[in-house]
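INFO  loader      accepted 1 record
INFO  loader      residues=298
INFO  predictor   begin
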Amino acid sequence: MNLSALGEDKLLARLLPMLTRHGAVVVGAGDDCAVVAGPRRGALQLLKTDCIVEGIHFTSKSPPVSVGWKAMARPLSDFAAMSGLPRFALVTMIVPAERTVDWTRKIYRGLEKAARAFDVAIVGGETSSIKGPAVISVSVTGFVEKGRWVGRGGGKARDELFVTGRLGGSLRGRHLKFTPRIEESRWLTKNFRIHAMMDLSDGLGADLPRLARASGVGFEVNEAVLPLNRGCTTEQAISDGEDYELLFAISPKDSRSLPARWRKIFPHLPLTRIGRLNPKFKIQNPKWPPGYVHFKQR
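INFO  predictor   done
INFO  writer      dumping tokens
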């Protein structure tokens, strides 16, 4: 059996049980970031690594500054998903020897631009040559207060589901220009009890089932109210991927004041109630279209 027959989630289901357990691990592989015991009292350490691959996440014609921004912003978006604050990054660049120095410098300009915007210091990494496409990997470490971290697995039946921003059409250039929602997630966990949260990297069609599965619940979505980017269809909003918006679950009681308070703080960023979590046996969207599935051909 090859990887295309499994897809990413089923592959991870086979690999992750092999990993050694450790007493300092709060949340291991399978969530947006790993959460481990921190060096300071009252805080937990977050760890995340991510990569972008030429031909998958960007093309040879993509502006290299934008490629560098995306390489750094992707793991920072995962920090947003757990309401964490990133601090230090390691960058590994694996590029063909024929690539120009100017291209590489512009990649680093984009990396540094994103890092500086979120108070992250790039402190090292690695370089290597390759005969194939370029690969840029970024590892980030940071922290989150013990009372504020959010994972995928805390959702409860009857929680309401919200998304930030608009969805769909990422390949028109938005996938290279998105802003990690760290400020928004920090505000949410400061002012509300968020039960579960993740960022929409593979699309609502792939990521919402992951959140529901981790929480042991089902879900229903009102597809008519999904916030669409201009010119996008509902199917594209569900399946395109690389939106990097926040998807989160909150109790109906706590959500009553959320929209009005949100508009006062973030007047230019939409916040939309798209559905709710249900008991696991109650699936209201049985033909839910998939998002982006790694290793599967689209």
